[in-house]
Amino acid sequence: MQTTKTALITGITGQDGAYLAQLLLDKGYRVTGTFRRSSSVNFWRIAELGIEQHPNLSLVEYDLTDLSSSVRLIESTRPDEVYNLAAQSFVGVSFDQPVTTASITGLGAVHLLEAIRIVHPTARFYQASTSEMFGKVQAVPQAESTPFYPRSPYGVAKLYAHWMTVNYRESYGIFGSSGILFNHESPLRGREFVTRKITDAVAKIVLNKLDVLELGNLDARRDWGYAREYVEGMWRILQAAEPDTFVLATNRTETVRDFVTMAFRGANLDVEWKGAGEQETGHCARTGKLLVRVSPKFYRPAEVDLLIGDPSKAQRELGWKAETSLERLCQMMVDADLRRNESGFSF
Ligand code: NDP
Ligand code: GDR
């Protein structure tokens, strides 16, 4: 059934913002999406989804680090639902830019919560929390009740925003909910993240545009799902009767190495692994050609070794479940990157 609701999405130029905007527009929402002023605005994701010119979509400039802009944004849009997806979201960069990350990813959420409290307290607020808040393994699998132990400035900033969301819920009765989402990927994933870096490199290697893929820690384990399904979970979180916290995950974990093997297989190449640690290399099983090597420059000062989520609360209370297998997701990404690189038009 079509709705007459309105939604505000911060970070519409990102992976999740684009998919969520499409989902809400399909449901009949009027959507305002925010983007940052920059010398070259990147609308390629909403363009690729075909919603850039949608009559129910408005795009407004906004920077999350500015409190007064946040107040004016909420005042002028008065949305039924606010999805706070904007963030400095790259864990690696957060070690180099801890203060910027704290300001955008941590305080930014509080600017929106304050704006809602001051001018529009009936809005429902979704905070994009993350499995990075679990960080150093305290329990397997990780659920809503698992203790947090973030391992990066990004994880710490997100934990602050997470607890502030809970605090505004408990202190002021704001409908503030948090989705603790495990890694989710897609053909629209940014190329700085490992899955897309891998699928883009596989495409380039196959097309002779790149020699070797260089990666950091191949042993890290992640619970990778399909982003399109996760934005549906975000929406369901805000449709619940009460504000709450939910884990969204697949409950399957694989190493970065496994994902590399899977991605090359998706382009009909089998990888053979040799050596260990910084000396580890991946070779074409047929020709012996070097395809992958490890470079310490991609290691992080502190690593999150093992993430695997327990999404049973979301399944029980929201009817949400991840459906797409990692093999299918990886193939989708490889195919998209082969297509883009063949056409010479790859973001
Ligand atoms: P992206 O990095 O793709 O998108 C982040 C968005 O935030 C971009 O639109 C970016 O704009 C915007 N942004 C960054 N800084 C600011 C700022 N100062 N003011 C306003 N907007 C800003 O992230 P994803 O789509 O992958 O993730 C969405 C959210 O979910 C993020 O908060 C992320 O931390 C969180 N998350 C993501 C997970 C994942 O696996 N994808 C898992 C768990 C949580 P610009 O295009 O200009 O850079
Ligand atoms: P993550 O995603 O840090 O989990 O955060 P990322 O894809 O960056 O890293 C996943 C794992 O791969 C290892 N790795 C590499 N990572 C990158 N980016 N580049 C490399 O070359 C490389 N080699 C190995 C990393 O060390 C790590 O262990 C993502 C982001 O979307 C966050 O915003 C989100 O909150 C979490 O997922 C859940």
From TrEMBL:
Transmembrane segments annotated in the record for this chain: none
Q: Name one Pfam family in it.
A: GDP_Man_Dehyd
Q: Where is the NAD(P)-binding domain?
A: 8-333
- Required cofactor names: NADP(+)
Reaction(s) this enzyme catalyzes, per UniProt: GDP-alpha-D-mannose = GDP-4-dehydro-alpha-D-rhamnose + H2O
Q: Keywords, A to Z?
A: Lyase, NADP
Database matches in InterPro entries: GDP_Man_deHydtase (IPR006368), NAD(P)-bd_dom (IPR016040), NAD(P)-bd_dom_sf (IPR036291)
Annotated SUPFAM superfamilies: NAD(P)-binding Rossmann-fold domains (SSF51735)
Asked whether the UniProt record includes Nucleotide-binding among its keywords, one would answer: no
Keyword hit for Zinc: no
Instruction: List, alphabetically, the Gene3D superfamilies matched.
Output: NAD(P)-binding Rossmann-like Domain, UDP-galactose 4-epimerase, domain 1
Task: Give the Enzyme Commission number.
Answer: 4.2.1.47
Function field: Catalyzes the conversion of GDP-D-mannose to GDP-4-dehydro-6-deoxy-D-mannose.
Q: What protein family is recorded?
A: Belongs to the NAD(P)-dependent epimerase/dehydratase family. GDP-mannose 4,6-dehydratase subfamily.
The cross-references to NCBIfam families, in alphabetical order and at most eight, read: gmd
Its protein name is GDP-mannose 4,6-dehydratase
Top-level taxonomy? Bacteria, Pseudomonadati, Pseudomonadota, Betaproteobacteria, Burkholderiales
